[in-house]
């Protein structure tokens, strides 16, 4: 599975690692995504989402039902 947050859409970014001699090497800054399970009463089951910490905070604030409704409108599958 890709390193992408299903709620916020955060993806890896790319940049340079700069050494002491100032040699630049391409590197990848990964997103801190975590697998998190939620019980969704409207579906009657648990779903597993790949979320960044900001995505987890979004679900805490808005509620899992509202977030699932938005994800279903986007065509996301769980």
UniProtKB/TrEMBL annotation:
GO terms for cellular component: ribonucleoprotein complex; ribosome. Keywords: Ribonucleoprotein, Ribosomal protein. One of its GO terms (molecular function) is structural constituent of ribosome. Pfam families: Ribosomal_L28. One of its GO terms (biological process) is translation. InterPro entries: Ribosomal_bL28, Ribosomal_bL28/bL31-like_sf, Ribosomal_bL28_bact-type, Ribosomal_bL28_sf. Belongs to the bacterial ribosomal protein bL28 family. This is Large ribosomal subunit protein bL28. It comes from Kineosphaera limosa NBRC 100340.
